[in-house]
Amino acid sequence: MDLKLRAPDSDQHSILLPEAASKLSEPYSGTLTSGNGKEYVIKSNIADLFTKKHSYSLAQQSNHFGITASVYEDLWRNQSISILTGESFPIEKEKELLTDWLEPKPGGLYLDVGCSTALYARTVKKISADSSVAAIDFSRPMLSEARKKAAKESVDLYLIRADAREMPFFAGTFDGLMMGGTLNELTDELKVLYECRRVIKKDGLFFMMHLLKAGSIAGKLLQGPAGFGGLQFWTIEESNALFERAGFKVEDQFNKGIVCFTKLKAI
Ligand SMILES: C[S@@+](CC[C@H](N)C(=O)[O-])C[C@H]1O[C@@H](n2cnc3c(N)ncnc32)[C@H](O)[C@@H]1O
């Protein structure tokens, strides 16, 4: 299936991202043309629809280095929940929770928002081979790493470089969304959540993992400097108020220390 995208500069025009671009084991490069004649580059399977340059927070900047992208998943992400909770929480458990709560179905279309190396997108595509999965991030090195990992695992994904504040998708495109850890890094979290609500179908499910405001003195001491780097943290009540304001209902939720998993439904 070719993926229909919304042209970044005009919601009146579409762009078709060919299915061939999602076959990550076969390099695909070329040009995408929107209905109004504008051209966008697709290089090594990654469609570049990131048109407006923004200033980045320190935390966001770090994701644009090749070295960060190359070690991110193996050195940090696979252990991150155990490190952050202080309890054993294998990555397999998180993947199981993701697929249980997202309930991917054959023929469904799913989106990983702020995907980094596309850990969630790859997991969903592996468990639900008959679904289609797209992943967006504004960091090219992260998307390149996602491509490498997915190709190695023979997983097909649509990889798109875009800003989550202005997603290149039409309303009601996706059956489900996933976001792992990205909420804390956003500079405009409500805008991104509104975009999430716009691009998901009504009743679509949204798997969210994010970090809460620490209650302990040690946690507060650590989160203070993280705030200067651009990271934000909320209490559970504040988080749920954000989700509800954007048009999502909390269907299920639990936290282990500062790590919070939430199953949201688009209302
Ligand atoms: C904490 S990492 C996400 C990790 C990934 N979801 C996972 O589960 O491993 C945050 C990612 O979001 C991306 N990001 C932050 N703000 C973004 C934005 N406005 N648009 C697109 N990507 C963004 C960063 O480049 C980074 O790769």
Main β-sheet, spatial strand arrangement: 3-4-5-8-7-6-9-10-12-11
Residues in helix, %: 25-40%
The CATH class is: Alpha Beta
Class computed from helices, strands and strand pairing: alpha/beta
* Domain tally: 1
Number of helices: 8
Low-confidence stretches: none
Globally, the shape reads globular
Which fold name corresponds to the CATH topology?
Rossmann fold
CATH H-level superfamily:
Vaccinia Virus protein VP39
How many strands, which pairing sense, and closed or not: the largest β-sheet? 10 strands, mixed
Q: What is the architecture at the second tier of CATH?
A: 3-Layer(aba) Sandwich
Short description:
By secondary structure, this protein is of the alpha/beta class. It is built from eight helices and twelve strands.
Task: Characterise the protein shown here.
The structure is a single chain. With 267 residues, the protein is of the alpha/beta class. The protein has helices spanning 58-62, 66-85, 91-102, 119-127, 140-152, 189-199, 217-228, 236-245, and strands at residues 3-6, 14-17, 30-33, 39-43, 46-48, 109-113, 132-137, 158-161, 174-180, 200-211, 248-256, 259-266. It has a 10-stranded mixed β-sheet with strand order 3-4-5-8-7-6-9-10-12-11, sandwiched between helices. A two-stranded antiparallel sheet has the order 1-2. The relative contact order is 0.14. The mean pLDDT is 93. Bound molecules: S-adenosylmethionine. S-adenosylmethionine binds at residues 60, 63, 77, 114-116, 119-120, 136-139, 142, 163-165, 180-182, 185-186.
